[in-house]
Amino acid sequence: MTAAGPAAAETATGGTGRRHVHEFAVRFADVDMYRHVNNVTFVRYLEDARTAMMFIDPVKRGAAPVGGCVVHRHEVDYLRPLDFRVEPVRILTGVRDITAVTFTLDHELVDDTACYLRASTVLAAYDVEEARPRRLRPDERAYLAGFAAA
Question: Model-level pTM?
Answer without folding.
Answer: 0.86
